[in-house]
Amino acid sequence: MALTPQKKTLGKGPSAILQDARAQEEADRQDRHRSDDISDECGKIEEEVEALKARYEMYFLGLERREPSRERAEMKRRVMKLKGEFVRNTGLRFRIQTLHARFLSYERMWQRSTREKEDGTYRRDVLKARRRARGAAPLVKAESAPAPAAAPAPVAPSAAPVRPQAAPGGIPEEALRALYAEYVAAKQRCQEDTSRFSYEALARSVAKQVPELMAKYKAKSVDFKVEVRDGRAVLKALPRL
């Protein structure tokens, strides 16, 4: 009777165990490297989302003529791609989820405000229209009433209710504050020190530049835009002829 030879079960030798250990170490190293890359990308997106928020503020204030919708679509693509990444680190995963939720909240706010702006029901636009109406009301009365010879003198105060709404330089204060927020965000992205840069300093600089630029270019108004040149954030003046 022939006997069937039995297969010998051998354990892993020292060389195989060493190879497995090296493979696991390499896998762990690659996973840490990948987590670092994802963390860096998350930090960049967080800063750019805040910069995009500042741009939308400028758009809703009328300082940006074009809605940054393409930038918003690109940002949404990057946020969704980041959210789809497999992340083992619990803290990093929570950070990505928080960023995703914040962007969706901003996006809903932007879409709602854009619809209101198109329909003419945007709150800031309505308030501006009401202020303009209140400022124009005294002029209508002065024209309709039979005024005596000295009547033209009281006409000058009719523009008074509108003046407090403008910061130095003729730019509305809310617009100047939005510009300040965008400027500070750009400086921080360029790793510039902003500890001594205040809103008042920006307001003084704008108040000095606007009259000079209007006289030089015979412009009706001057807008300002934040740009990054050679790794530094700068404020670019845009005279409107």
What are its keywords?
241 residues; mainly alpha; 2 domains; two-stranded antiparallel ribbon; 6 helices
Topology of this protein?
Layout: H1 14-60, H2 69-83, H3 90-119, H4 123-144, H5 173-189, H6 199-217, E1 221-229, E2 232-240
Helix pairs in contact: 1-2, 1-3, 1-5, 2-3
What does this 3D model show about the protein?
This protein has six helices and two strands. Mean pLDDT is 78; it is low at 136-147 and 155-165. Helix 1 packs parallel to helix 3, helix 1 (14-60) packs antiparallel against helix 5 and helix 2 (69-83) packs antiparallel against helix 3. It is mostly helical and 241 residues long. Helix content is 62%, strand content 7%.
Short characterization:
Helices cover 62% and strands 7% of the residues. The protein has 241 residues and is mainly alpha-helical. The chain folds into two domains: 22-141; 166-241, no CATH class.
Helix fraction, binned, reads: 55-70%
Task: Report strand order across the widest sheet.
Answer: 1-2
- Main β sheet profile: 2 strands, antiparallel
Strand content: 5-15%
Secondary structure: number of strands: 2
How widely separated are the two ends? 109 Å
Number of helices: 6
Radius of gyration: 30 Å
Poorly predicted regions are 136-147, 155-165
Count of distinct structural domains: 2
